[in-house]
Amino acid sequence: GQTSPKKLNNRSFVGPDESQVPFYVSKVMKLQHSVDKEWYGNAAMSVKSYEIARVEDGPLVLRSSPPRRTLDDVRLQVAHEVAMRAIMQAKSLEGVKIGVSLTLSKDEDEFFLYKVADAIANQLRLTDYLFAIATTGTSHIEKPNPVVFIASSEEYIQRAILLTSSKFIGRIRSHAQVTPVRWAGLIDGIGTSTYDDDALWDIVRKCARAPMDPTVPPPGSRSIDQMLSDARAHLQ
Predict the structure, then answer these.
(1) What pairing do the DSSP bridges indicate for beta strands 129-135 and 96-103?
(2) Is 0.70 topped by the overall pTM?
(3) CA angle 68–74–76, rounded 5-degree value
(4) Percentage of the chain surpassing pLDDT 70?
(5) Residues near 219 by Cβ (< 8 Å), separated by ≥ 6?
(6) CB 62 within 8 A of CB 16
């Protein structure tokens, strides 16, 4: 029999043969159209969900719905959002972008932080940066929280290792330099005190500053000769 037309936005639309549907990518305006059954003559035929799409100044076409996202896909999206938020809230110090991000996570904390670190590194490939990211997951099982430092330079990481060891004395359970520009550690009770957030910010600030040359006086300092000269001028 003849295919019965379906109404779409007050227009008659007849679904074409799926094998003959062209695939369009750019400038598509999507409309969701789900059908349980379509009738062709006297026979009932099961139909899956389709996207009805229109290319600008083009024909209406049918496309199969995208596959459902897995839990890994969702976690990857959340990690990307955490990384973007950390970058947006980052500060610039002497040409280095620095940031601290404390996020809540319950399972697979370390792997989640690695995904966040990967997203940050991917976004800041051409920038000098140093970030500290940690989880503050609350669990009935007492366990240390993972902390990850990621940087554009191994020098920043080496400074961060030294400062972290001095800031969190007695609280570091284990640590390892995962790569030359990435360090991970397990620290007891991260996020339970406001001191932790301030301590991490202090670490990234000090690591980002360029080392001082002992032969160059600090900005605003005066030598003994300058102080004596100023004192003589004042007495005169």
Answers:
(1) parallel
(2) no
(3) 125
(4) 68
(5) none
(6) yes
